[in-house]
Structure formats: C-alpha cells, structure tokens
Amino acid sequence: MTTVTRTSRAIQLAARPNGLPALPDFRLIEEAVPDPAPGQVLIRNLYMSLDPGMLMQIGGYPEIPMPAFAIGEVISGGAIGEVVASADQHVPEGALVLHQHGWREYAIADADSVRVVDAQAYPSPSTYLGFGLVAYVGLTVVAGLREGETVLVSSAAGATGSLAGQLARLLGAGRVVGSVGSPRKARYVIDELGFDTAFDYHDQPLSDQFRAAAPEGVDVYFDNVGGAQLRAAIETMNVGGRIALCGALARQRAGGTPDGGPGDLLPVIAKRITLRGFTALDHLDLAPEFGRRLRQWLAEGSLRHAENVVDGLENAPQALLDLVRGRYTGKVVVRLTR
Amino acid sequence: MTTVTRTSRAIQLAARPNGLPALPDFRLIEEAVPDPAPGQVLIRNLYMSLDPGMLMQIGGYPEIPMPAFAIGEVISGGAIGEVVASADQHVPEGALVLHQHGWREYAIADADSVRVVDAQAYPSPSTYLGFGLVAYVGLTVVAGLREGETVLVSSAAGATGSLAGQLARLLGAGRVVGSVGSPRKARYVIDELGFDTAFDYHDQPLSDQFRAAAPEGVDVYFDNVGGAQLRAAIETMNVGGRIALCGALARQRAGGTPDGGPGDLLPVIAKRITLRGFTALDHLDLAPEFGRRLRQWLAEGSLRHAENVVDGLENAPQALLDLVRGRYTGKVVVRLTR
To answer: What is the ipTM of this complex?
Structure first.
C-alpha cells in the first residue's frame, strides 16, 4: 500500500485541439503523489523541455507511432529533475535524472525509464535539455557530413537548428547556410552563431533563396521543417546529397494539417539523394562521445547555447504556443519553481 | 583523315514530345559511319535495351542532371554489340561490349566508354542488358535487406521489378509482395516468379491494398514507380524501413508531368524511414560479385528471366511506348537484325 505524502501540480490535456492548440486545451491540476513502488523513483522536476514535436501527441496526428495523449491525461515531455525518494538500488536519492515525465512538478517513474546524468558537467541542469545530441546525430551518422561540404539548416535560429549550424562548422563544413523566419533571426544566426549566410523563408520564390544562399549546391540538408522548404532543398541538392529529416515544423505550425511534402521525387533518384528520418533516441550510444566533444567546445568558447527560461509550470502552454509561432530564438525550457 | 566505309541506320529525336512521346517524335535515318579514330572502337550493335528512364531525356524533364536529347540527335541507350574495328589496344576486334550507344546499328565509341564482357557467360548477349545489377544493388547496399524481412516491389512484373522480387527471396526475404498493373500480371508474379502475393494497383484504396498484402508491415520497398504508391508504401512501412528509389514510372506514364510525390513526410521521421535514390552505375564495383551469384542462381534454376525480343531498330519507338504503357512483362530488348 502506498501512502500519499505530497501533491504535485501537473498539466492535463483538456480537449483535443482542432488545428493549433489554444490555452483552453490545457488544464492545470493538482494531483496526489504516492511513494515510489519497488523499482520506481520519485522525481522533483527542475526544468522541462518545450518541443514542437509534442504537438503531434497533443493533436493526435494519425500517422505517428506514438499514441496521442488522451483527454484528461497529464502531458509528458523531456525533463530533468532530482530523485527525492528511491525504491531502486541503481538510482539513488539525490541523483540528477533526465526523463520523459515532464509537465508535472513531481513524477513517479520506473527507474529504468530515467537516465542518471552528471550534475557537475554543465553550468545548469537545464543545459541537458537543450544540448543537441539530435543535431550531432543528424550531422554525423544520419547525414555523414564530410569536410568542406555545404550544409543547409532550416529553422536555423531554433533550439535544434542553432546547434546544427554551429556543430556543422565545428565538424568541418565548408559553408553553413540557415533558413529562418525573420530578418532579425537571419542577422542573429550570422552575427551570433557564425553562419555564412541566412535568408527569411517568407521571401519568395523559395528555390531562388536556396540557390542564392548555396550557389555551389547543398550537400547536407538538416531539415526541421518539411513541406515547401524540403522541396526547394531537393532542387538545390548536389548529386549524392543527404537530408536528415529531423522535424516537421511546417506541419506543426499548420495545426497538424499534412503539408504537400516535397512533391515529385524524380530529382531524388536522378541526383541519388538520401532522405532519412531519425530521432536521437535511436542513437543514445553516441551520447558519451558527444558529451566529451561538447564539453571541449564549450571550454574553448566555440559553441553558443541560447536558452530561454520561462518560470512556472502554469506558463508552459503559452510558451509552447509561442515557440511554435516562432517567437523565440534558441532553446525554451520551463523552470519549475515550486 | 577518316574514310567512310559503312552506313548505319539510327533513330533520331524528331520533335520534343509534349507529354508521352508518339511515333512522329522519332525519325529513322541512315548515317555514314567513319573508321574509329585512335582510342575509339567501331561496334556492330546486336541488342539494345528499352528502358522507361529514356523518356526523361526524350521529354527533357527539367530536374534531371543528364542533358535532354537534342532535336535531331540520335537517341542513346544501353546496348550490347561486337567490336568490328578497333583503334585501341585494350578493346580488341571481336570483343563483346556493353555500352550506352544504342538506337543505332553501328556505333563509334571511345574505348573507355565501353565494358568488355564475357561472351560465354550467358546463353545470349541480350541477357547482359536485363540481368538486374540495379535490383541487386537496390536490395543490398541501398536498402540493406536483412533475413526474414518483408519486401514490397512496385512494377513487379517489369524488367527490374521481376528480378527485384526474385532476388529478394534469394537474399533471404521472409515475404515478397508485388504491386502490378493488371490481374494477369499479379498471377504471373505469384505463379511464375514465386512472389507470396501481389495486387493490381488500380484497385483502390491503395493503402488498403498495401496493408492487406503486408499485414505485418513492409521493411523494404523497392520503388520503380513513385507517386501515390510511394505514399501508400510509407504508410505501410515499419519503423526503420528502407525505400530504394529506383524508378519514376508514374511520372513517365504521365508524360513527364510531376506527380504529387509521397506527400507529407512526417511519417518518415516518426518511423525513422530512409529513402534513397540510386543508380546501378554508381555501384559497378558490385558487378563481379553479382555476376558470380547470378550464374550460380541460373545454374540452380532458381531465377527466371523473362525477355521480350522485338526485331528491328525501326520497331524500337513503338516498343518503348508499349513498355511504358505496361503491355509487357519482363525485359524488353530490340534485336538489330541487319
């Protein structure tokens, strides 16, 4: 029998949005938190990650393999927290753990569903939520980036894109190009992140923008967006180009309505292009290698991490909507202050 | 100075078709054939290959890297012939050579643009034009087929598809499914080629057809078609599935008009699918390995090669149109009888 010792605020899905979610689709609740059962841990969350990909489970996109969040279910997402009670010998009390039980202040989790991380490795625990293993995986094992190649990144001022562009340079790219959503963001990725050039994807025609930014063609496209930008990228790719398909922001911004995709794929055959969908979760074996290189780049000052910290669980839904609408540059995390 | 010694019939492109070509877009001519200059050979063609991919250069599809055939230019395509005069020490008179100078009876070619093949290896020289290195490459290095997996092949009764399905079985696939253009072809690939099942892609809805044929999902899709079938295949793919993009028959049948492509690629990300365009020409290093295995499979009687022989250069345009319209099963070659 478990004894109820605490309560925790959490955010439920209140209604299935028709299109982009709005604030009434979320509900702040207070729930009882039991003691951990054997094999479980109780986590006090410190920071949680906001990620446009969550909209797929919120909206119940039909073709994704992950189940939609149910109405009345507490939303899950990446988070980092401290173990405050443990009933598992492998995860001690006091451990800092990365897990997928966000959107609540306290979480009960199976010990084997959390990853213990080194509390000393980074300046803030929040850093673990934003330091782009996904960007590293996409550029290395997925796209096979080679010295001197031209890399194009979409949503380049975003959490993943801003790291993908910087990592591309550190991994030897010859030219790094960003597609962003405003002239201000274009200046940001050039001036602050060291991209060679950038353009506002609202300026048309898109394929002219892509070609002007990469006159010798694109070898690697790190795609966070899909849709019309993917089409333009394929037109601009060189023979043998690789596309790392990481995100579907075009569709998420459209409230889940499928976009037209890249259209006819004959150029993909004719130019022997590879498109590969991926997630960092399939490549956690690269985390130690990435961690080592990352700490060195940070120590050298050669990598910039832009983090937006939003205070308070109750502000998470609005921040997620702002994120999808392109109001941030860099990573967005929520600090759980209670 | 070269001395004109022979004339050769050849087929020129007479007009750029608007849509699918028609017979008046081709013109049979008689041209003078010079002696080979140093480094060249003179080839008497024996058989030439018909391939729907030729429509891309005939129609001048805008996004392909190969130049369109010019109006008045003799059309080129895969062919096999005998060297009747040589001005190059590496390619002797009498050699059997595979090359890209088809659609003419005699061809002058740079010696380094032809590949000398073993005249004794196969029952007929025509076999060299149809024995599917492309199918082998697509299943092995492109799609990474593993033991026990489910393989779906589109245009499965065609030259490449019929070999892809049979090779998939020989390479260890657990289930081999074919998409074809008629009930007769479905019976053919099941009864004659050993596919586990097949369906007529004209029956709708396509995604139901795909799912019913591969109830446990598709691991490898060998795509000769593109368009709506590619969309249905993506819906049916398992996590980690691979798609070898080999042909664009849907578009070629439509006279070059771009098809809608696979649509929204979110499922490709969510299921971590790889799509890869390829050509066998990038993988000629596999030809010796494939040749050895092929001869063994043929000796065992475990591989069936369906070949349609059309006699006479003058009949090539009509045969190409018939091929694109789906009137054949298996490979189509033209025998040059003069």
So the answer is: 0.91
Q: Containing domain of residue B243, as a range?
A: 133-281
Q: Which residues contact A41 (CB under 8 A, 6 or more apart)?
A: A83, A85, A86, A87, A88, A91, A97, A108, A109, A111, A114
Distance from CA of A270 to the nearest CA of B (A): 6
| Per-residue tens of pLDDT for chain B, all 338 residues | 455 568 999 999 999 999 999 999 999 999 999 999 999 999 999 999 999 989 999 999 987 878 899 999 999 999 999 999 999 999 999 999 999 998 999 999 999 999 998 877 777 888 888 778 999 999 999 999 999 999 999 999 999 999 999 999 999 999 999 999 999 999 999 999 999 999 999 998 999 999 999 999 999 999 999 999 999 999 999 999 999 999 999 999 888 888 888 999 999 999 999 999 999 989 989 988 998 899 899 889 999 888 999 999 999 999 999 999 999 999 999 999 76
- With respect to residue B78, please indicate whether it lies within any of the assigned structural domains: yes
Interface of A with B in 183-212 (CB under 8 A): none
Residue with tokens 């895969």: B78
**A251 in contact with B at a CB cutoff of 8 Å?**
yes
Same domain membership, residue A187 and residue A81 = no
Taking the Cβ of residue B264 and every Cβ of chain A, the question of whether any pair is shorter than 8 Å is answered with yes
- Do the Cβ atoms of B248 and A269 come within 8 Å? yes
What 3-state DSSP class applies to A242?
strand
Question: What is the rounded distance in angstroms from the CA atom of residue B24 to the CA atom of residue A227?
Answer: 40
Q: Which residues of A touch B226 (CB under 8 A)?
A: 264-266
- Is residue A76 domain-shared with residue A16, that is, in the same domain? yes
Instruction: Please tell me if residue A248 touches chain B, with a CB cutoff of 8 Å.
Output: yes
- Domain of A266: which CATH number? 3.40.50.720
Check A270 against B64: CB less than 8 A apart: yes
